Amino acid sequence: MTTIKILGTGCPKCKTMTTVVREVVSENNIEATIEKVEDIIEIMKFDVMTTPALVIDNVVTIKGRVPSKDEVLALFN
């Protein structure tokens, strides 16, 4: 089971990234838990200064922008 965390304080880009990631996981039957992290102290533990950020199994994969669905899917292959 993959653990996905979306780091962001709730800005429009953060919400868009959450939607994109949820759609990719759903459409491709990926077994994953998705957690939205909005606490700035928790976000800083990942050494991320720009949000949104995508963390997969505790590795920051994307930060500071909203990825495409294809880009998110490629992270699981």
Automatic annotation (TrEMBL):
Quote the Pfam families the UniProt record gives.
Thioredoxin_3
Say which domain of life the source belongs to: Bacteria
Entry annotation: catalytic residues: 11, 14
Query: Mind telling me which InterPro entries this protein's record contains?
Result: Thioredoxin-like_fold, Thioredoxin-like_sf, THIRX-like_proc
The species is Algibacter lectus
Please name every pair of cysteines joined by a disulfide bond in this record.
Answer: 11-14
Keywords, ordered alphabetically: Disulfide bond, Redox-active center
Residues in Thioredoxin-like fold domain copies: 3-76
Put simply, this protein is called Small redox-active disulfide protein 2
